[in-house]
């Protein structure tokens, strides 16, 4: 019996060590599963966030694309009318018109194709099937398929009466823009005829398509110099007119927008602070 006691004690110690090791392995496995589940959940959140962000961009891009296309069409029309009334203009103006017509034509064809030829039920065959022939196209089609179908459906607005309303409102808005530019130019000594202001509006607006400095500083002045020299206006006056238009038209809108944004950020914070003080009192 004296020999059995140490053996029994060793056996109990060995059993306890085995139990501790098994418990530790179970704990490590559980922690590994939790870490794996956390990583998978985080990846799923990121995936859903990217998908939602892309869908939000598509939803926001729908009115922006249509609006920009309407504005660009009217700008190109203004440039063409100005060239006709001024007797054809110079080579730079005609080059601007050709580039503008090409951009508008490509935009009209693309938007018309998406709006009239694509629906949710045939978007896969029209848009996604060609992607499958590209390297990695199957994965791309699977990822963007639903979003492209939703975007195609959203562009269906051009088939509704709301598009006609937008088209009708674009004309008076740009009429006011033309009158404002004519008034500002006249105030700095750059008086223009109807042909001149139409040509200037078209060329100056097309110059904003190019990526330039904030506020189109530089490219906007260059467009004014190119156009106004055809009417015998000095480059210094042209630069002054462009800067004045930027300051009074673009600058005023920027200031008002900044003020509205600041108020929208400050007022809720002040209300929340006031509510907190009321609860404390």
Q: What is the mean predicted local confidence, pLDDT?
A: 76
Outline = elongated
Radius of gyration based on Cα positions? 33 Å
Which structural class do you get from the secondary structure elements? mainly alpha
**Subunit organisation of the chains:** single chain
Quick one: how many beta strands?
0
Largest sheet: none
Reading the helices and strands in chain order gives HHHHHHHH
What's the number of helices? Answer: 8
Distance between the termini: 79 Å
Which stretches are poorly predicted, pLDDT < 50 over at least 5 residues?
57-61
User: Which percent band covers the strand fraction?
Assistant: under 5%
| Share in helix | over 70%
Task: Please tell me about this protein's structure.
- The protein has helices spanning 4-85, 91-117, 123-128, 137-154, 161-187, 194-207, 219-228, 235-280.
- It is an all-alpha fold and 281 residues long.
- Helix 1 crosses helix 4, helix 5 (161-187) crosses helix 8 and helix 6 runs antiparallel to helix 7 (219-228).
- It starts with a helix and ends with a helix.
Quick synopsis:
The protein has helices at residues 4-85, 91-117, 123-128, 137-154, 161-187, 194-207, 219-228, 235-280. With 281 residues, the chain is mainly α.
Ordered list of secondary-structure elements with their pairings:
Elements: H1 4-85, H2 91-117, H3 123-128, H4 137-154, H5 161-187, H6 194-207, H7 219-228, H8 235-280
Helix pairs in contact: 1-2, 1-4, 1-5, 1-6, 2-6, 5-8, 6-7, 7-8
């Amino acid at each position: 019996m004296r020999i059995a006691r140490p053996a029994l004690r060793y056996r109990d110690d060995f059993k306890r060590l085995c139990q501790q090791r098994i418990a530790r392995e179970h704990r490590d496995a559980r922690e590994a599963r939790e870490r794996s589940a956390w990583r998978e959940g985080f990846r799923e959140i990121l995936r859903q966030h990217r998908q939602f962000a892309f869908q939000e961009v598509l939803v926001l891009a729908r009115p922006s694309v249509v609006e920009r296309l309407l504005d660009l069409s009217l700008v190109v029309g203004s440039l063409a009318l100005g060239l006709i009334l001024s007797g054809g203009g110079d080579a730079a103006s005609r080059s601007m018109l050709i580039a503008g017509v090409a951009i508008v034509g490509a935009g009209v064809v693309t938007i018309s194709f998406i709006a009239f030829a694509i629906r949710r039920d045939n978007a896969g065959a029209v848009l996604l099937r060609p992607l499958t022939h590209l390297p990695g196209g199957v994965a791309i089609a699977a990822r963007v398929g639903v979003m492209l179908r939703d975007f195609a459906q959203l562009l269906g607005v051009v088939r509704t009466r709301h598009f006609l309303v937008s088209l009708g409102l674009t004309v008076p808005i740009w009429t006011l823009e033309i009158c404002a530019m004519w008034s500002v130019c006249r105030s700095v000594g750059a008086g223009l005829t109807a042909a001149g202001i139409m040509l200037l509006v078209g060329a100056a607006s097309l110059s904003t398509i190019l990526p330039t400095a904030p506020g189109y500083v530089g490219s906007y002045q260059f467009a004014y110099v190119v156009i106004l020299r055809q009417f015998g206006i000095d480059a210094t006056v042209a630069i002054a007119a462009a800067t004045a238009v930027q300051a009074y038209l673009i600058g005023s809108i920027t200031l008002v927008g900044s003020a509205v944004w600041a108020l929208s950020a400050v007022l809720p914070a002040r209300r929340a602070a006031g509510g907190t003080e009321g609860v404390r009192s």
